Amino acid sequence: MGISFSEISNIIQNRRTTKPGKMNGQRIPDEQIKQLLELADWAPTHGHTEPWRFKVFAGDKIQDFCLAHAELYKKHTEEENFLQQRYDKLLHMGDQASHVIVAYMQRGNLPKIPALEEIAATSCAIQNLLLGATAFGIASYWGSGGMAYKPPMKNMLHLRDEDVVLGILYLGYADESAGEGKRMVPLDEKVEWM
Question: What is the value of pTM for the model shown?
Answer without folding.
Answer: 0.95
